[in-house]
Amino acid sequence: MKHPVAYLGPRGTFTHEAVRRLFPETDYQHTPCDSIPDVLLAVDRGEFAHGVVPMENAIEGSVNLTLDWLVHHVDVTLTAELIHPINQNLMTHPDHAQWPLSRFTRVLSHPQAVAQCRSHLRELLPGATISYVDSTAEASRQVAGHPEEAWVAIGPQSSGLLYGLTILESGIQDYPNNFTRFISVGRPWTHRTRAIVGWKTTLLITLPSDFPGALHRVLTSFSDCEINLSRIESRPTKKKLGTYYFFIDAEAGLDHPGIAKAIADVEHWGCQVRQLGSYPCYTFDKIGDPLPVDNGR
After folding, report:
1. C or N: which end of the chain has fewer Cβ atoms within 10 Å?
2. What are the Prephenate dehydratase domain coordinates in residue numbering (predicted)?
3. pLDDT band at 236, cuts 50/70/90?
């Protein structure tokens, strides 16, 4: 029996690519969900063993919806990280494959994808109207379904293949090192074929309101234990203006002796520490790295 995995859908998105890399279809059943909260809630309720959602993009920054739901709405464990290259493509209906770019009047895509390509769009299609849709896959579906329109979609190659589009321009993101960090949540698991490139522990820290310099104390505790912090980010507690939770990613697993000591020190200063997960990290750093076969296609 295949283990169920929920992911931010639909099929043909970058999250779909990520879930296929993390959870091979030989062992797992992939189920798309309409939103990040839907994925996290489904795992929290035990409806799925695993879930995959985006956490952070190198160009656009953190996915705040993911962070806020992890803090305020669900109690799920982070179980893995995948760093995945994001290669945005300009695609159209095959009937328009030979058209000059100047003939296209509308660009369809998800707001995040458009934001990652804004400078290139101004250069390639300065007169085209931009229309936002729910996902890059939805953009490809609409372009494929309206051959009478002079439309193009922005999205991954997988969405173009899914809906039979032709790629006009590849790699149109404004910055070449465009990667998204995806996380899996739910039950512990081990990737059967991919090598682990490192370990992380994600902590949520609440500072005491009456302790000046508390954040400095927190950072010093990890520094003194020789634990590198790869990310520190604040999110509002939603209880009072000016009060924050701090997400901290430590580049070590919980079995590292320095982690336990640093956490103990932080708690000693009166901070509250919630362990969100200690997990292996994987990376697919080549855009040409082939995806597993999509049996659902």
Report:
1. N
2. 4-187
3. confident
Q: Which of 173, 69, 150, 61 is nearest to 103 (CA)?
A: 150
pLDDT at residue 5 is higher than 50: yes
Mean pLDDT value across residues 50-75: 91
Q: How many residues does the chain have?
A: 297
In degrees and rounded to multiples of 5, residue 252 shows phi and psi of -170, 155
Whether this model's pTM surpasses 0.85: no
Q: What is the pLDDT of residue 296?
A: 45
Query: Which amino acid makes up residue 161?
Result: L
Residue type (1 letter), 102: S
| Residue of higher predicted confidence among 214 and 30 | 30
CA separation for the pair 258, 19 (Å, rounded): 32
Tokens of 77: 């464990």
Residue 118 has phi, psi (to 5 degrees) of -60, -45
Q: Model confidence over 262-290: pLDDT tens digits?
A: 999 999 888 899 999 999 999 876 544 44
Residue type (1 letter), 35: S
pLDDT at 226 exceeding the cut of 70? yes
